[in-house]
Write a structure and sequence with these properties.
Keywords: Hydrolase, Metalloprotease, Protease, Zinc. Belongs to the peptidase M14 family. The chain is of the alpha/beta class. It folds into 4 domains: 349 residues, 3-Layer(aba) Sandwich (Aminopeptidase), CATH 3.40.630.10; 110 residues, no CATH class; 95 residues, no CATH class; 215 residues, 3-Layer(aba) Sandwich (Rossmann fold), CATH 3.40.50.880. The chain is built from 24 helices and 35 strands. The strands form 8 sheets. Strands 26, 27, 28, 29, 30, 31, 32, 33, 34 and 35 form a 10-stranded mixed beta sheet that branches. The chain has a 6-stranded mixed beta sheet with strand order 1-2-4-3-5-10.
Length: 858
């Protein structure tokens, strides 16, 4: 009774305050106890402020906790609107999805044209003015319901604002905590001061050091999965992603720069300009500098502007000067001091201007939003009207793909017709007149509301109107997953029932006395099973040659678990194995003999004994945080295999003999390994260690000159390349100054897909066909190994299947190494010229990395 009375009293006080025109909520400065901009606010205090506002303005603010970060911090959304909007919030959401065609129902409120404006802050943790601006924006929006009295602002009537104050709390707190420790009192604005030099890995990324602003479409991270799930429950008409850039850069807002994806509509471009004009009026009034249309394109689908755009919104990036080097104040080249309070004010101003221009155009925004999805469903763009994917060869990847489609809200089913269809064959990179369908195929029709998103994720080649883009230009899912797939030119009718691409399990009978247990080596789930087997102390062997037993053929790479090798476990072996077998879907098969029907027997020297390797992963200063994070995430969340992270700060003191495998991620190694770092690694490899070098680490081995790696095939090729470069440079002497950017892209390779020749008889390629699709993200090239195994190689420039490659670089990519293994004494060096697990979405390389860890050298 007392609690109910307290609630009534609180509501009465709120009513009195509102009636008197007084805000019942504190401003951010009042609540925090310091002026906003004097210091950075930890995430928990940001959350507390949002809860404070929601508590005292319940008729205008609804708060939702939609997930948690890896480190346990809450992810929240605030829904801000009139009392009528908040009261009917679920009806508004439902109607919005009905207009998009996601729900096939009648509108609940057909006359309502509420526009949804979603503001996302601080996806990059060290662009930290964003969350501060989010608090000020929330206060201003809610306060307007009190101060305006009966004269409501236009946004009150037809807009619901959704605020995510921090997309990356783990990264933000990493930065904020460091700032609290290092910032001077008062703040030292000189760029040389320690507070402007953030240490590795920086606060930009999340716990696993993933760039969450590249993860919207793939959702490899917990934060992305939670956010995109909630985003697709609402599908706003307008979305703004707030960022920061260099300390001397003027503010950036829409319209965006080329390249714009060809499927971006005229209305989306038009409204970006309206928003730009609205922001410009505010910035002109204050005399603030800004620019538009020169950078920040709309192409790669993983961004916080492109992903919303491809889902029917007006997606935009706003960029404020600041970033990691700014602290709470920093000297600028024009003599001004850029203060945190300035950064907050600019983001606050652009956010409110965007809300207001959206409100002024709400009916048009809702109408065009509906048209976007209806046209997508009835008249899908592009020549391909369906996509067919076969999961027969790799049901594990197929399950991952279906999970992604479900999260994207993309509909799929099975084939209803058996006659052949026409289309493009991804694997062979060519059109086919007759593609035969099978009952287990996955069919994704383009005739659906999410058609544009589907096209962008699956299009074999992305049309790039302007190649000056700062991210990858190819990402097609069939290549990333390396699944048999076809883009179909026919309209296809799809069954409502999803296909059964998983073959029926071969149910096993519990056999504790089996001679051995056999695991095929086909996909990353087999590697997870092996990792767990080894974690139980079980010893294994790897087949180096094929064999047949119990009427079934097994390829090289098959894992053998014999009773003889595991005497130390005794009778518990069978129970351990069968518990794992149930967990992994009956992947282990019991056999009663080591005498095979064909190929090698179980006691053959080609059944190589393999121990559980102790793996070290190098991180720290000089290592690319994103690439390091991919590997860290791969071990902990994908492979579930223990890894010891070493730091470059103390690497020189580490006893490498404690480890069997050392992984060097992409990075800059010129001063990373210490004075004798390379020599220590060479000695360790020669004594039996296994070094796995990736991208920049391979370049370091090339530069070292003592690992047997070369940049060019021979001297004549180098001379030829140098002459071509010299000729181009001479031609550039008389070229117009204005064309310098166009000349620069001749040597540009941001991200393109190549079909690679693969020697699948080598342990590095076990479980693969005779090809592999690689994501090449730079122009670095390594010659074929003269003393080693060239496992994955690019034959010529014709192996390019998708993406932009500059005209100077394109002819030089041929006859180069992608992945190889080189012996060194008793050890091995595994080279990955390209990143095998790029951004966590390049599924095609996951098994190859597992091969490098477990198969190579055993």
């Amino acid at each position: 009774m007392g609690r109910r009375l307290a609630g009534v009293v609180t509501l009465f006080i709120l009513w009195v305050n509102v009636a008197l025109g007084q805000s019942p909520v504190d401003s951010p400065s009042e609540f925090l106890g310091y002026d906003l901009g004097d210091r950075f606010t930890p995430h928990y205090r940001v959350v507390e402020y949002f809860r404070h506002v929601a508590k005292y303005m319940p008729s205008h603010v609804k708060l939702k906790e939609y997930g948690h970060t890896y480190e346990g911090r809450p992810l929240i959304l605030a829904f801000v609107g009139s009392s009528e909007k908040i009261q009917n919030i679920e009806d508004i959401r439902r109607d919005n999805l009905i207009r998009a065609g996601i729900k096939k129902e009648s509108l609940v409120r057909p006359q309502d044209t509420t526009a949804l404006v979603w503001l996302s802050y601080n996806v990059h943790g060290n662009e930290a003015s964003s969350s501060e601006a989010a608090m000020k924006t929330l206060h201003s929006l809610t306060n307007s319901f009190v101060t305006r009295g009966n004269n409501s602002e236009v946004w009150h009537e037809n807009t619901l604002v959704i605020i995510d104050p921090c997309l990356n709390p783990d990264g933000r707190d990493r930065y904020v905590n460091w700032q609290m420790q290092k910032a001077g009192f008062p703040n030292n604005t000189a760029l040389d001061a320690v507070e402007h030099h953030e240490p590795w890995p920086g606060g930009r990324t999340n716990h696993y050091l993933f760039d969450l602003n590249r993860d919207w479409s793939w959702q490899t991270q917990e934060e992305s999965r939670a956010r995109v799930t909630e985003y697709n429950r609402w599908l706003p008409q307008v979305h703004v992603d707030f960022h920061e850039q260099g300390v001397d850069s003027p503010y950036y807002f829409a319209p965006a720069a080329e390249p714009l994806h060809e499927d971006i509509t005229a209305w989306q471009k038009e409204f970006q300009r309206k928003v730009g004009e609205a922001n410009a009026k505010v910035f002109d009034k204050h005399g603030w500098l800004y620019f538009t249309g020169e950078s920040f394109d709309l192409l790669y689908p993983g961004y916080g502007d492109t992903y919303p755009t491809y889902n029917g919104a007006i997606g935009m990036t706003y960029e404020q000067a600041g970033h990691t080097t700014s602290s709470t104040g920093v000297d600028q080249e024009n003599g001004n001091i850029l203060k945190l309070s300035d950064r907050i004010e600019h983001h606050y101003a652009s956010g409110l201007a965007t809300v207001r221009v959206s409100a002024e155009n709400a009916p048009k925004l809702v109408t065009e939003f509906q048209r976007y999805f209806r046209e997508s469903e009835t008249s899908p763009k592009g020549k391909y009207k369906a996509y067919v994917v076969s999961g027969q060869n790799d049901p594990v990847k197929m399950e991952e793909l279906v999970d992604l489609l479900d999260r994207e809200g993309i509909r799929y089913g099975g084939p209803l017709v058996k006659k052949p269809v026409r289309g493009f064959d991804y694997r062979f990179n060519k059109s086919k007149e007759a593609i035969n369908l099978h009952p287990g195929d996955l069919v994704i029709s383009a005739y659906q509301p999410k058609s544009r998103m589907l096209k962008i994720l699956f299009e074999p080649r992305t049309f790039v109107a302007d190649s000056v883009t700062y991210d990858i230009t190819a990402w097609s899912i069939p290549y990333a997953y390396d699944l048999d797939a076809w883009a179909i030119t026919n309209k296809m009718f799809v069954s409502q029932l999803p296909p059964k691409f998983n073959k029926p399990r071969e149910k096993q009978v519990f056999r504790p006395d089996a001679y051995a247990y056999v695991v095929e080596w086909k996909n990353i789930e087999d590697a997870r099973l092996l990792a767990e087997v080894l974690g139980h102390g079980v010893k294994v062997r790897y087949a180096r040659k094929p064999f047949a037993v119990n009427g079934k053929n097994y390829k090289a790479g098959t894992v053998i678990i014999s009773r003889e090798d595991n005497r130390h476990i005794g009778e518990a072996l069978g129970k351990t194995i069968w518990d794992l077998n149930g967990k992994y879907g009956d992947k282990l098969r019991a056999v009663d003999t080591g005498f095979t029907e064909q190929g090698i027997d179980f006691g053959s020297s080609s059944m190589v004994f393999g121990k559980s390797p102790k793996v070290a992963l190098l991180g720290g200063q000089g290592i690319d945080p994103n690439r390091f994070g991919e590997l860290w995430h791969y071990f902990e969340r994908n492979l579930a295999y223990p890894v010891t992270v070493l730091d470059t700060d103390y690497f020189a003191k580490v006893n490498l003999d404690s480890y069997d495998v050392l992984i060097l991620p992409d990075g800059y190694y010129s001063s990373t390994l210490g004075g004798n770092g390379s020599e220590r690694i060479r000695d360790w490899v020669s004594d039996g260690g296994k070094l796995i070098a990736i991208q920049g680490a391979v370049e370091a081995l090339v530069s070292d000159g003592k690992f047997g790696l070369k940049e060019y095939m021979d001297k004549s090729e180098e001379d030829k390349a140098n002459k071509r470069k010299s000729d181009l440079e001479k031609a550039d002497l008389l070229a117009p100054y204005a064309g310098r950017e166009r000349r620069w892209i001749r040597s540009y390779l941001a991200g393109a897909i190549y079909k690679v020749r693969l020697d699948n008889t080598h342990p590095l390629a076990y479980g693969y066909p005779t090809h592999y699709f690689t994501m090449k993200t730079d122009s670095h090239r390594v010659a074929y190994l003269e003393d080693g195994w060239n496992v994955a190689t690019i034959g010529s420039s014709k192996d390019l299947v998708s993406g932009f490659v500059g005209s100077d670089i394109k002819p030089l990519i041929g006859e180069t190494l992608v992945a190889g293994v080189m012996p060194m004494g008793r050890g091995k060096v595994v080279c990955f010229v390209d990143d095998p697990v790029f951004r966590g979405f390049w599924k095609n390389g996951e098994l190859m990395l597992a091969n490098a860890i477990f198969m190579v050298g055993n």
